[in-house]
Specification:
It is a single chain. This protein has 152 residues and is mostly beta strands. It has a single domain (2-147), classed as Sandwich (Immunoglobulin-like), CATH 2.60.40.10. The protein has one helix at residues 2-22; strands at 30-33, 36-39, 42-45, 53-57, 60-66, 69-70, 76-84, 90-92, 100-102, 105-110, 118-129, 132-136, 146-147. Strands 7, 8, 11, 12 and 13 form a five-stranded antiparallel beta sheet that branches. It has a four-stranded antiparallel beta sheet with strand order 1-2-3-6, with no helix packed on it. A four-stranded antiparallel beta sheet has the order 4-5-10-9, with no helix packed on it. The termini are far apart.
Length: 152
């Protein structure tokens, strides 16, 4: 019984994938060769996610980094994480505060940073096909530690 259900699930998934492939201009294949991430011949530039630069303000932290491109022309989305010295990382720059591009620089503001608390930030370029994160670079190295207002 379990094998029958598993086989049916795989067949349904393949049918769904086939219909998605038919509606796109290319099938993306994940490969990684000598630090170059590729989608069926497309490559990210740069091949390593840029480190986030930070600027401290009272009640917020401005974030910026060099935009990443992919030669396939697909849109890049960024997952930006705030990492406290203790406790879990939190996604920032979401909803109406998503990163925006000016020239070749991406930027956003962390408006929820607590005053006096030290944080580092990372960004991860992600390519979505539909609602599925299909491929990404690894998250950037953490930024230098920054505090909104003044570190205590």
């Amino acid at each position: 019984m379990r094998k029958t259900i598993a086989i049916a699930a795989v067949c349904a998934a393949l049918t769904l994938l086939h219909s998605n492939f038919a509606s796109t201009n290319a099938v993306f294949v994940e490969t990684k060769t000598s630090a170059v991430n590729q989608f069926a011949g497309a490559t990210f530039s740069p091949t390593v996610a840029p480190v986030v630069s930070t600027t401290s303000h009272p009640n917020s932290v401005s974030l910026s980094w060099t935009a990443v491109t992919i030669s396939s022309g697909r849109a890049i989305t960024y997952v930006v994480m705030r990492i406290p010295t203790s406790g879990p990382a939190v996604a920032v720059c979401t909803g109406g505060n998503v990163p925006t591009m000016s020239g070749s620089t991406m930027s956003c503001t962390d408006n929820s940073a607590a005053n006096g608390v030290a944080y580092t930030y990372t960004e991860q370029p992600v390519v979505y096909v539909g609602a599925t994160a299909t491929w990404s670079l690894n998250a950037s190295a953490p930024s230098a530690a920054v505090c909104s207002k003044k570190c205590v």
